[in-house]
Amino acid sequence: MKRHIYVFIILLTLFLHGCGGGGGVSHSRSDRLGNPQTNTQLPSESPPPQRNRLVTSTPILNKLSPGQEFDFVLRAELKDELFQTSARILYDPSVFSPIRTSKGNLIPEDAVFFAKLDKEGLLPFAITRLPGSEGIRAGTGEILRVRFRLLSTPQANSRIRLQNEPAFLQLRDKSGGRLSFDLATEVVAQ
Fold first, then answer.
1. DSSP output for 58-113
2. Per-residue pLDDT tens listing for the chain (190 residues)
3. Residue 98 to residues 91, 108, 121, 175, 177, Cα–Cα distance (Å)
4. Residue pair 178/21 in contact by the 8 Å Cβ criterion
5. Contact in structure between 72 and 145 (CB atoms under 8 Å)
6. What angle do CA 180, 50, 176 make, to 5 degrees?
7. Distance between CA 168 and CA 122 in Å, rounded?
8. What is the spatial distance between Cα 152 and Cα 96, in angstroms, rounded to a whole number?
9. In 10 A of CB 42, how many CB atoms?
10. 20 to 30 A Cα–Cα from 18, which one of 46, 57, 64, 171?
11. Angstrom distance (rounded) from CA 94 to CA 43
């Protein structure tokens, strides 16, 4: 058990210091309307997608009033088995305040989950499977849900997003190698 803790501490240290190896990460962006995912939805039983894909979704922010709460959701469509993921969510702290985070339905209960809410404008998170554990199976489902409170009226450029840099946005396989993926953004009606 001590070995597992040491491995987790090393992985967490690498994540927090922004260290990352090489490897290809392919990103694309698409904005479209869709239906919000809920935490009660089970991972898809349909065949895995042709490529790994991360999808972020938020409601139409300029339709919300200060004081209202909403969810920022990160979903994954995985063709490959996933063992680790880490990312940073960026937001304007004068407009948005994160309240809580929760693991999505794609992440097993015994997965190690880390999210830090006390950094202004930045919410780092990491999820990993311990050595000897099975990975997160290919399929579709939520990885992370963050509840935010709107503090002030958002401007046209006010948004919540993943920091789209290879040092911070990573998916990794069983051997620690990087998995390539596409990145998409959805705006959903609330």
1. EE-GGGS-TT-EEEEEEEEEESS-B-EEEEEEE--TTTEEEEEEEE-TTS-TTSEE
2. 554 444 444 444 444 444 333 333 333 333 333 333 334 344 445 566 789 999 999 999 989 999 999 999 999 999 999 999 999 999 999 999 999 999 999 999 999 999 999 999 999 999 999 888 999 999 999 999 999 999 999 988 899 999 999 999 999 999 999 999 999 998 886 5
3. 9, 23, 9, 33, 31
4. yes
5. yes
6. 30
7. 12
8. 8
9. 10
10. 57
11. 35
Task: Name the residue with tokens 């940073």.
Answer: 88
Q: How far is CA 24 from CA 15, 46, 123, 158, 167, in A?
A: 18, 26, 24, 29, 11
- Please state whether beta strands 31-34 and 182-188 pair in parallel, antiparallel, or not at all (unpaired): parallel
The answer, as to whether pTM is greater than 0.85, is: no
Residue 78 CA to its chain's centroid (Å) = 13
Closest by Cα among 13, 22, 28 to 185:
28
Side-chain half-sphere CA neighbours of 83 within 13 A: 15
Instruction: For the chain, give the number of residues.
Output: 190
Taking the C-alpha atoms of residue 152 and residue 168, their distance in angstroms, rounded to an integer, is: 28
